[in-house]
Amino acid sequence: MLMLGGLTVALVAIFVVYPLGRVLAEGFLKRGEVDFAAWVSVSTKPVYLRVLWNTVLLGTITAASTTVAGFVTAFTLIRARPWAPVAIVVRGLVLLPMIAPPFALGLAAILLFGRSGLITRGVFGVETNLYGLPGLAFVQFVTFFPVAHLMFEGLLRSVDPAVEEAALNLGASPGRTFRTVTLPLLVPGIAGSILLGFIESLADLGNPILIGGDFNTLAVQSWLAIVGQGSFQMGAVLSTIVLAPSLAVFVIQRSWVAKASYVSVTGKPSGGRGLAIDGGARASLIGATSALASLVLLLYLTVLAASVVSVWGGDYRPTFAHYAVAFGRGWSALSDTVVLSLGATPIAAGMGLVVAYVVVRSRVPGRDWLDFVAMLGAAVPGTVLGIGYLLAFNKPPVQLTGGWLILVAALAVRSLPTGQRAAVAALQQISPSLEEASTNLGADAPTTFRRVVLPLLRPALLAGMVFSFTRNMTALSSIILLASPRWKLMTKEILDLMDLGQMGAAVAYTSILITIVVAVLGLLTAAVERWGRSGVTRELDISRF
Predict the structure, then answer these.
(1) Is residue 76's pLDDT more than 80?
(2) What are phi and psi of 308, to 5 degrees?
(3) pTM summary value
(4) Phi and psi angles of residue 88, each rounded to the nearest 5 degrees, phi first
């Protein structure tokens, strides 16, 4: 375990710290000489101060809304216990936003609720302005709440029902049991969800470009500075500023979680039904979750419909010409995207698990900083990470540009934090006494980790792998500058089609991408679930040590 932890630290240093360090250094250099002009401009001009405020405001709204929605949907499916077929359908719909390119839901929102939207103008006859903070907050909410859902789902399944059963038997009402027993045990998930929601909002580039309008964020402003104005120094400075609110939220999250213990998995036999929601509360929860799932379904049906009509908003005659254009671009982008994503998925999930174990279980000095540094890959705008990789790995002794390894590394670093946060929250629920019992029975550290800890972390590992794969398949900003003629990516192809004005073909390509993700995701989920079912009982039999 020590060797694995050392290797993980080395990988984080090489593929996270070093590239970002190169970017930060560029913020103080201009033509190779020390220069502070960009910093002075950013700290004094009102336009940049307004962009900073916009970024923090949007991140706060997104973190709060996604955490609430993720908790409500997970709590409904696990504790309100809707009819099984309904629960399966609703869960699938809730997770759908994770499997689309970052701009797909923004495009669907414009088609439905924009100035000439099918619902706003076509049904109600009104012209609305979706662009700006309201539209952007709505799209980010729908895009990112499935991450919180997966985190809360794993944690709720891990809560010992006997704890809630004891409170109910002592006369506590279901509401009081929820407030005083269930909710406190979910603090790691709440804190992790807020942190992830805030960071995801800060790092998002696709949605703000599409529907942000005059509401600029730091990610967009840094991208415009680098790509539009050719000022890499200004882009580096703006990207550095993104880290400030991320660090603040990280510190708050760490101090909040550290105030108490959240252990609920102890290895002792437990029973009981636990807290179950009935009556009006159950109906309200199922109704709210179903409404949100229906909204997601509507957005995706809009994407599908737009791919098979001639001109959305003008000519709704059915046609498959858009798919002919998409398939006419060849299959290389499809195969390359799947291969690279599958390669990066186990790396991100495994690194996240090891980092989480080091942070929660070890007493290694600097483990809190390892926790934060490993999340930096997702905290900075993806474009800046791509530029950092170009600077760091564009010449000997480490020359990776143009090849597959630099793309796999960028994808793994960007998707690492979700698996990391899910594993941290799950580890905080597992009693260290389980590992101590294994050690006392003669098992060494690697055996204890493999046969005791790892089976209990299966939900977190699954969540990390699921999100890692879907994020890799739909990544754009982090790899747009790293793609080469040899290795093509579907999101880059979609963006090129949009630039050419072939909106129908772009939507058709998006539909193809979603179909591929759903198919591979089903296989991945089935494989991990089968591994868990066949191994948990056998591996946790510590009498076999």
Answers:
(1) yes
(2) -120, 20
(3) 0.77
(4) -65, -45
